[in-house]
Amino acid sequence: STLQAPGLDLDAVQQLGDQRVILVVEDDPDTLNLLKLTLRRAGMNVVGAMDGKQAIRKWMEVGPNLVLLDLDLQDMRGLDGFKLVRQTFPLVPVVVLSGTRDVISLRVALDLGAAGVIPKEYCAAAITKALEFILAGERHVPAKLLGTPGLNEDSAAYQADASGSLTHLTAHERRVLAELAKGTTNQEIGA
């Protein structure tokens, strides 16, 4: 039996109107299908690609609102693939999907304009929350990158001191962070 989810798998749909679309670029078919199902269950519309060439073709077909890009594709390796996507489509947020432990490459991707980094080990709920955060215009940086030197853009917003303290945050930022940790949506926080 086929698993049902409220979002659309746009690989199976021709007409979509002006709904938001996430392009997932991942070369492992099982991971790609799991990510698509996860996002569809969260009510997001998705289209998938397994390599850089297919991603560019799908991008031209559907004009996604966000791209979730694996940095380790067969035909677009590492930051070169990320740079190509950012240069070709500079107005669409690109989120790095990473299974790497290479913190330096992830930091460089953020410096080059990545809208965020989502580790592949995140659970479905964490992936969904991170993408909702990014779609709301924010940037998602996983805890493993917090407090590491070298984040150029907005680096003060991401750095914790050596003890892990968040004392550099304003009172308002701490309240927002506490609400996000509880699972409150951006819309609910802003209301």
Q: Beta fraction of the residues?
A: 5-15%
What is the string of helix and strand elements? Answer: EHEHEHEHEHHHH
Report the radius of gyration as a whole number of Å: 17 Å
Strand order of the largest sheet: 2-1-3-4-5
Mean pLDDT: 76
- Point out poorly predicted stretches: 13-18, 150-165
- What best-fitting shape do the alpha-carbon axes yield? globular
Number of strands: 5
Distance between the amino and carboxyl termini: 41 Å
Protein structure class: alpha/beta
Ordered list of secondary-structure elements with their pairings:
Blueprint: E1 21-25, H1 29-41, E2 45-49, H2 52-62, E3 66-70, H3 78-88, E4 94-98, H4 103-111, E5 116-119, H5 124-135, H6 155-158, H7 171-182, H8 186-190
Explained architecture:
With 191 residues, this protein is α/β, with parallel strands linked by helices. Helix content is 40%, strand content 13%. The chain has 8 helices and 5 strands. A 5-stranded parallel beta sheet has the order 2-1-3-4-5, with helices on both faces. Strand 4, helix 4 (103-111) and strand 5 (116-119) form a beta-alpha-beta unit. The longest helix has 13 residues, at 29-41. It is globular and about 45 Å long. It starts with 20 loop residues before the first strand and ends with a helix. The model is unreliable at 13-18 and 150-165 (pLDDT under 50).
